[in-house]
Specification:
By secondary structure, this protein is mainly α. The protein has helices at 20-38, 42-65, 73-89, 92-111, 119-144, 149-174, 188-209, 214-242, 258-278. Helix 6 crosses helix 9. The longest helix is centred in the C-terminal third of the chain and has 29 residues, at 214-242.
C-alpha cells in the first residue's frame, strides 16, 4: 500500500514516488491475465499463481543471501509445487502434509549442506520462506477447487486490490497521521480508506457473484483490509531486518513480485475460511 510522502518523484510518477502510469499498466495486464485464466482453464490459473509465487520465493532467497543466510531454492520451490497440487487435487489435509514433509526435507537438506554453523539461522529462514509466501499462497488452490472457485478467487483478489487502491487514494489526499514506524508512508487515513474500499467491494461482489448477504461481503472486505495492511508490514519488517530497500524490480511501478504478494498471502487464509463457513 503506497501512501503520502513529502516532495515529488523524479521517476515521473506521483507525489508518492510511485510510477503511477507504469503501475496502472502492469495492474491492467495482471488483471487481464487473472480473469482470462480463472474463467477459462482453472489449472492454467493455478500455473500462473505458482509461477508468480515461485518468483517471490526466489526474491526472498536472494534477499536472505545478502546477509549470508542460505535458503535452498530448489527444495523450497519443489515444496511449493507439492503444496499447490496437494491443495487443489487433495484438499487441506494434503496441503498440510505437503508442508510438513517439505519442512522436514529442508531441515535435513541443511544438515548435510553447510555444517553446524548457522544451522538454526538457515533452517529457520528456509521454513519461513516455505510458509511465507509458499504455503499461504497454496490456499488459493483451495478456493479454486470449489464449484464456484472462479468467483471466489476474483472476490479475494478484488478486495485485496481495493485495499491498495483505497489506501493509496486516501493516503495521498488525507494522510497526516502515521500508522506505524515500520512503514512511515502508511497513515491511519490510508487504513480507513482501505477499509471503506474493501468493505464496499466485498459487499458488492459477494452479493453479485455468490448470492450472499451484504454483511457477509462487508465482513470479508473489512477483514481483508486489515490483513492486507499486516501483510505489507510483515514484508517491511523483513526488508528492514535485512537492510534492503526492495526485494525485486520485476514489475514496473510495483517493485518485485513479493511487493504484490505480501498483502495477498496474508489475506488469503482468513478469506478462504470465511467463504468456507458462509458458502
Amino acid at each position: 500500500m503506497e501512501e503520502r510522502t513529502a516532495g515529488t518523484s523524479s521517476s515521473g510518477g506521483s507525489r508518492t514516488g510511485r510510477n503511477l502510469p507504469a503501475a496502472i499498466a502492469v495492474g491492467v495486464v495482471l488483471g487481464a491475465l487473472v480473469i482470462g485464466t480463472v474463467y477459462t482453464i482453472k489449472e492454467l490459473f493455478l500455473l500462473v499463481v505458482a509461477g508468480a509465487v515461485g518468483v517471490g520465493v526466489l526474491e526472498l532467497v536472494k534477499a536472505f543471501a545478502t546477509r549470508d543466510i542460505k535458503v535452498p531454492a530448489v527444495p523450497v520451490l519443489a515444496g511449493m509445487v507439492a503444496m499447490h497440487a496437494g491443495a487443489y487435487w487433495g484438499g487441506p489435509v494434503w496441503l498440510l502434509a505437503a508442508f510438513a514433509v517439505s519442512a522436514l526435507v529442508l531441515l535435513i537438506w541443511r544438515m548435510f549442506s553447510d555444517g553446524t554453523d548457522g544451522y538454526v539461522r538457515d533452517a529457520s529462514a528456509s521454513v519461513l520462506t516455505l510458509f511465507y509466501p509458499a504455503m499461504l499462497a497454496a490456499f488459493v488452490a483451495l478456493l479454486l477447487k470449489e464449484g464456484d472457485g472462479d468467483h471466489r478467487v476474483v472476490i479475494f483478489i478484488a478486495v485485496t486490490v481495493a485495499s491498495d487502491i483505497g489506501g493509496y487514494i486516501a493516503g495521498v489526499l488525507f494522510g497526516k497521521h502515521q500508522l506505524t514506524v515500520i512503514s512511515p508512508k502508511k497513515t491511519w487515513e490510508g487504513l480507513a480508506g482501505s477499509i471503506v474500499a474493501c468493505t464496499a467491494v466485498g459487499a458488492w461482489l459477494v452479493t453479485w457473484l455468490l448470492g450472499g448477504d451484504i454483511w457477509q461481503g462487508a465482513l470479508i472486505g473489512a477483514l481483508a483490509a486489515v490483513l492486507a495492511t499486516v501483510g505489507d508490514l510483515i514484508e517491511s519488517m523483513i526488508k528492514r531486518d535485512l537492510g534492503i530497500k526492495d526485494l525485486g524490480t520485476i514489475l514496473p511501478g510495483h517493485g518485485g513480485l513479493m511487493d504484490r504478494l505480501d498483502s495477498l498471502v496474508t489475506t488469503l487464509v482468513p478469506v478462504w475460511a470465511l467463504m468456507a463457513i458462509f458458502f
